[in-house]
Design brief:
Blueprint: E1 7-10, H1 14-22, E2 28-31, E3 49-50, H2 59-69, H3 76-95, E4 102-103, E5 106-107, E6 109-110, E7 120-121, H4 128-141, E8 146-149, E9 152-160, E10 163-171, E11 174-179, E12 183-185, H5 206-213, E13 218-219, E14 224-231, H6 244-247, E15 251-253, H7 273-287, E16 290-293, H8 301-304, H9 306-314, E17 324-333, E18 336-338, E19 350-352, E20 357-358, H10 371-388, E21 399-403, H11 410-423, H12 430-440, H13 448-462
Parallel strand pairs: 1-2, 1-12, 2-8, 12-19, 18-20
Antiparallel strand pairs: 3-7, 4-5, 6-7, 9-10, 9-21, 10-11, 13-18, 14-17, 15-16, 16-17
Helix pairs in contact: 1-4, 1-10, 2-3, 3-10, 11-12, 11-13, 12-13
Amino acid sequence: MPARAPIVVVGSGIAGLCTALAAAPRPVVLLSRKARGTDSASVLAQGGIAAAIGPGDSIESHVADTLAAGCGLNDVSRVRMLAAAAPAAIEWLQAQGVAFDHAEGTLKLGREGGHRFARIVHAGGDASGERISAALSAAVAVAAHVEWRSDVDVDALLMQGNRISGVRINAGGHAESIASPAVVLATGGIGALFARTTNPEAAEGSGLALAIAAGAEVRDLEFVQFHPTALDLDSHSLPLVTEALRGAGARLLDPDGKPIMEGLHALADLAPRDVVARRVWQVRKEQGAVMLDARNLDIDWPRAFPTVLATCLRHGLDPRRMAIPVTAAAHFHMGGIRTDGDGRSSIGGLYAVGEVACNGLHGANRLASNSLLECVVTGRRLGTHLGACMDSEAIEGRTQAMAIGSGLDAAELSLLGDTLWRTAGPLRCGAGLAEGLRMLEPLLARGWQARLACQLLLAASKRAHSIGAHWREDAENAVSVAAPIAA
């Protein structure tokens, strides 16, 4: 019997790693742009994994909080699937070697914005993404069915007829084709297209652009979540200051020391991210700065927040003695490649998982710590499906390379980033979006990043009302950012 064709997984963040592991014993070729375990936003994630396992909590409460954050645009069946699968996902990760934080013999649960209960499981405090990624990377490294190739760029999807037949890669300057009847894009988000982001520099949306080049359907591109608390530095990729700090009691203050969220939302500093991010954006614009005050809190910094502590100290700030300057920054893309609940795109043989995918789970705004949960649950689900799939559909026809095309140079990327930041940030308007399209039009023929950015701007232009992370100041339903909002 001939050997089964391998699955190609593009991206080695938590979504890609889980997909690769779950596909056993089917052969998998895992492709990553950088050295193993270093090329994804997963490694930078300080939040943990949401799971309704604490006293008084329930799956229905987790579902309700997710729907509230997503403003009801979520696919309810997929939200229920995610919340119901969370406890088992925690157990599976522990079996893979993830050492979650405990207190008095039980899992320690934290609280983040939009959650009515403490239900966030962490590993090494705010080093959760790094710890989980390391454990899964170690499991994949010894998995006999996975061939992991790093320092590889995927520049085209291969198609025969209307189906995917593999990928074309560039490895060390040499082009190579890898045949596969099933290609999984697990390439992360688009945050690095913006001038200020919490994402790594490589998170420019290359996987999304590849899918678009191949003709795949996309959805909800206008929904970009801005994290309210990135460390306010003069740089592009900014260190995250985890939401869990506010869960532990930290307050957002204006330059005069006044709480900026007081009276604006029943959850105050723990309101949904879109609400807090817009307020941070507004106060910085009007008053010049926003500070996160975590002084005088009963926090074991080296254990609970080692990443934030080390990052602040590296930039001459001691969060135990001084407030932390913060800014909103592009953080997570709720939109992406349109998929069903099993990760299938509109093109046969092309799948997507994690942030690059959009199956309606997050709606108009993602609930905190549902992203890593999504990566684990949907990655395992997709890998299991592909591992059992017999690829009965024959692939015929001439092979075509659907290439991503050339990219912009550094100066052009800087212009693009500044334009998106000004016109498609936390506060938008029709005139600004139109200006963004005019600014980027000369770059459309220069690089794929401009074409992707213009698709985002067009989607934002078409959605004329405000909802979730997409906030139109000129919409009929828009209210003042400072207007009180109920929980």
